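Database export, one record per block. Field names are fixed; values are copied verbatim from the stored entry.
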Amino acid sequence: MNATIGVVGGMGNEAMADLAANVASLDGSADHSYVLYGNSRQAFTPEEADQEWEAGDPPLLRKRATGEFTAALLQNLGAAQIGLSCNGAHPLFRDIFRDLDADFVDMIAETARVPAVDDGVLVLGTSRTLEKRLYDDDLEAAGVEAFQPTPRNVDRLMDVIYDPEFGIKTGTVTDRAEDLLCELVREECDRHPAIDTVVLGCTELPLALTPESIPRLKEEGALPEHLTFVDPTQVLAERLLDDADDAEPPSVSLAVDDSPHLDYDPPFAARVGSLSEMVTLQSNLIEWTMEYFADRGASVGGSYLHLPTLFFVDYDRPIPLDLDALDLTVQEYDAIPSEPDDAIERALERNFEQVSHLL
């Protein structure tokens, strides 16, 4: 039986598909099975996202309980190595995985080992990631000088990621987001000539600065020629495969009512034959969710509003979960639908009903 690799997603819905695509591009990816839980209920709601919270506040209690459930479910499904496709949630999941037997492959710690010791590294990310110095401390511990954008450029970077009209979280990389991102990178390189590496420390940013777009942007003069860009998602993909082995953690108890703070909504669950099929289906579900909202005069304003998803990829064993207790029906797909089928339509309707009070 091949080793199972797990992925925690849902706090950047495109990011889980991006990580899966990166894994699929690597030699040896077909030697493993995968479980990927895009649990969007781990994200902040739109009204919570712009506020500061202290330990013990209800939003943080909810995020922890929901994260614990998500991680335990992946371990229960046999995932021996688990990665997280979100930067800002790494401190939380480092703590959660201390109580689990599955190995947490830490994207931030692994990324900090990539630059050479004589590099000057510009760290890009959300304001929370930068304030917490999630990459800076690990980089500096490795002897690498880390730089952060100016407060003005942090604000612009947040617009690149979150702006409801042109931000990457809308599901599309717009020209305006790309132009603004390149402009602030040029400004920071002018301020700090030592910078020769840029860490894309938000899982949305590698969707804009890709291996295909970066050479084009350099040729157009939008990005400095000398820069090297590090995509933590790619680093994580490589480490997940490097560290995979045949160990299967023991099952753990799963119950949806263990904690009064748990925010559980049954995900749309599907079993598919390859990571490429999973990427296509997840990308379709993101698009169909946005269309479903738009048809009802609303927009998807943040990860929490997206449809929760759970994927079994090349998972050729019985699913060791009480599906009835979890209110789960696993759809089996030999071919990925090009438009929503009945099961997807029901899932989209249910999701909209669950979050419509937040619109």
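Remark 1: The first strand starts at residue 4 and ends at 9.
Remark 2: The chain has two domains: 4-102+249-358, 109-231.
End of record.
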